[in-house]
Amino acid sequence: xxxxxxxxxxxxxxxxxxxxxxxxxxxxxxxxxxxxxxxxxxxxxxxxxxxxxxxxxxxxxxxxxxxxxxxxxxxxxxxxxxxxxxxxxxxxxxxxxxxxxxxxxxxxxxxxxxxxxxxxxxxxxxxxxxxxxxxxxxxxxxxxxxxxxxxxxxxxxxxxxxxxxxxxxxxxxxxxxxxxxxxxxxxxxxxxxxxxxxxxxxxxxxxxxxxxxxxxxxxxxxxxxxxxxxxxxxxxxxxxxxxxxxxxxxxxxxxxxxxxxxxxxxxxxxxxxxxxxxxxxxxxxxxxxxxxxxxxxxxxxxxxxxxxxxxxxxxxxxxxxxxxxxxxxxxxxxxxxxxxxxxxxxxxxxxxxxxxxxxxxxxxxxxxxxxxxxxxxxxxxxxx
Length: 384
Ligand SMILES: Cc1cc2nc3c(=O)[nH]c(=O)nc-3n(C[C@H](O)[C@H](O)[C@H](O)COP(=O)(O)OP(=O)(O)OC[C@H]3O[C@@H](n4cnc5c(N)ncnc54)[C@H](O)[C@@H]3O)c2cc1C
Hints:
Blueprint: H1 7-34, H2 39-47, H3 66-78, H4 84-100, H5 103-115, E1 120-123, E2 139-143, E3 146-157, E4 164-172, E5 179-187, E6 193-198, E7 208-218, E8 223-224, H6 228-267, H7 279-307, H8 313-337, H9 353-361, H10 366-377
Parallel strand pairs: 1-4
Antiparallel strand pairs: 2-3, 3-7, 4-5, 5-8, 6-7
Helix pairs in contact: 1-3, 3-6, 3-7, 4-5, 4-6, 6-7, 6-8, 7-8, 8-9, 8-10
The protein binds flavin-adenine dinucleotide.
């Protein structure tokens, strides 16, 4: 058993951290507040091969795995730039297409997703189905050789900066009439595809949208996974990477908060000694540091399981849960350590509260992880 990162992973971590430090939270905040996009950072990490680190080499990627992409996510967030679209475009969409797409889909999408020149959003959440994705009602109907998509999605990130959306829909089995999952790639400029901004209190350049598909016509090759079984496999191929990289973002935010808190608590003097001298401040920070490190360990385990082809579901869920809770704990204590300054824009802590708080709700809510652990890990009867 070896918990040390490989030399290559350590180099990747250092390199991403160096690039991210050149941008930092001030850049992220400036883009968010001015309505801009983090395009320069996105392009640079694309050109340097960080976005495509997990994409197969034959399609222009680094040929590594989700563990490496999680390193990229963590280091960006640790520099105050928690980019949601890394969790979506390369982590979910590129993984799904690499594992379950046709050769044509791989050639069409993977090189661009690897360099960041192409971006794909991911849409599973629906207003009526909510966390119960078995109830999604977006339908892909066959029309001759083509598809016609109708339905709605909600809280879909980054659609305004994406070339296409990987939509989780359902299609009717021609033989039995039952509805089975179907994943389709929908170009964002397809006629009948509309979006509406959902304003949220997250200070970040990436926006969320409600999507409407009004009989959107798609070619036959829009379908990812040629059979319903393949579509289910494709979907599951993408959900664990989403949880693992989502956890990595939260871990990075936890580290960001702890680093700021430790620096401030060392330098700030109120009664003639640094405030970090007081155990009332030091112990909650130390406790948060332990929680963040435990979450990082579980994230590393989940990444390793996924990359070695083992079942990563339990570890990915646990990592996401632990990382969200640890990040919130660390950020809250970092704000407390800063006194009034904790809420000042200048100190760059409260500005990340929305991003960290999101991790408790998405991509899977805290309660749904607990449901999973209760039934899968503990064998308890399902409550829903
Ligand atoms: C900023 C942001 C970005 C997002 N980006 C995307 C994206 O890019 N793509 C995408 O598809 N989705 C995205 N989402 C959606 C997100 O994944 C969902 O909001 C989340 O999974 C919760 O689903 P819901 O909002 O429908 O809540 P609901 O399902 O309505 O749940 C409401 C509450 O009830 C709880 N609950 C529900 N069922 C149970 C149960 N059986 N037992 C116990 N508690 C339960 C939930 O945990 C939650 O606390 C995003 C959301 C946000 C806020």
